[in-house]
Amino acid sequence: MHPMLKPALRRAWRGRSTVQFGVTPAHAVTLGPVDIATGSFLELLDGTRGLPLLREEARALDLSDRHVDVLVERLAEAGLLDDPRAGGPQAEVLRCRAEVMERQRPDVASLSVVHPAPGEGLRRMAARRSMRVQVRGAGRVGAAIAAVLSGSGVGQVEVLDGGRTEPGDVAPAGLPPASVGERRDTAARRLVRRAAAGPAPRSTESGRNTMGGQPPLSLIVVAPRDGLSVYAPLPDTAGPWIASGTPHLYAGVIEATGVVGPLVLPGGTSCAGCLELHRADRDPQWPRMLAQWRSGRRGAAAPACDLGLATAVAGLASAHALSFLDGELPASTGARWEAALPLLDWRSERIGAHADCSCGAAEHGKGDRASGSVAAQDTMAG
In the chain, helix, strand, coil percent, each to 5? Predict the structure, then answer.
């Protein structure tokens, strides 16, 4: 191990004997008591020295080998240490791609803060390169999501959409003006390639099993240009994803309201069918109105999709998607986030699994609750 204090966390002395690593409460950690010699030793933790050399240089500061070992152990347990050589073989491959690393350093730094184990930031960035994500929609929201995911290191980002790019599809974070009149899927593929930090990873870089020469879908992001398909998604459309166990996340804008979520984990969390059934329970007239909105002829009026709101939705949805791809369950899991102009007050609503939905999430939830009850009884009995 070549210990290195995480560069992503700013360091400051809170007093004469306490050091704080990090600024914000979410990730800040304090270390103390720290004497002058130990403070000087901290400057040596820059990733260029292994433990034997660190112990040797610490002796010149009158610090014992045990003091060094205990300090390094404390720093590691607190998530304050990184190791520039750790992360596994895929991370080593990524280190050798200088042009990619220069672009992704901020992302790796962020991952190192969120996932504290030494080398974990680079390992997770390398894991992204083996993933395949599909974005359904190439409008103001969908195209921007695809570009962000590609630029964030996701190895394969596919975009599905029909028709040709219209002037209203153009956005600074998405399709450029030059794509107007071009097939949307073609323009989106070019956008994804341009946003990527480097060439697509070779199959030899991926440790994952592949199907038909490509990795299975890690996630589908549903971001159609028609915001109604996000606000009230058709359960039948998601049927194949539920059957195949493919996670999917909804994101879009409808009538100046931004929507992110739910992130659906098939069989585990609420789905589009659950959402529709819950709404019908609350409002018996909802199915009647929804049928009219879905079957009614659309006028020539442009959708109410503010560019700033669309970009904010794309950014939030991308962040939730990346959090999921990196192994976490973001706040959109089984929940929906909404914000409407002009106040833009983001609010979340938990969407429970519906007992009448065929997705199976309600039965899964019952099993979890039963297991939790048994565990609670065992704990109390103990």
Answer: 45, 15, 40
Listed in sequence order, the DSSP H helices in 180-306 are 184-195, 228-231, 235-244, 272-282, 286-295
**132-365 placed in CATH 3.40.50.720:** yes
8 A C-beta contact, residue 180 and residue 167: yes
- Check whether domain 4-82 has CATH 3.90.930, yes or no: yes
**Residue 342, preceding peptide bond in cis (omega within 30° of 0):** yes
Question: 347-350 and 335-340: which strand pairing?
Answer: antiparallel
Domain boundaries, the chain: 4-82, 89-125, 132-365
* Predicted local distance difference test score (pLDDT) of residue 286: 96
Question: What is the pTM for the complete model shown?
Answer: 0.89
Q: What single-letter DSSP state applies at residue 228?
A: H
**What is the SS3 assignment for 357?**
coil
Confidence of residue 86 (pLDDT cuts 50, 70, 90): confident
As a whole-number percent, the residues of the chain with pLDDT over 70 amount to: 91
User: Residue 337 gets which letter from DSSP?
Assistant: E
Spatial distance between the Cα atoms of 161 and 132, rounded to a whole number of angstroms: 17
Convert the pLDDT of each residue in 100-133 to its tens digit. 899 999 999 999 999 989 999 999 999 999 999 9
Mean pLDDT of 306-317: 98
Amino acid in the structure at residue 344: L
Q: Which ranges of the chain does DSSP label H, i.e. alpha helix?
A: 36-42, 51-59, 65-77, 89-95, 98-114, 120-128, 142-151, 184-195, 228-231, 235-244, 272-282, 286-295, 307-325, 361-381
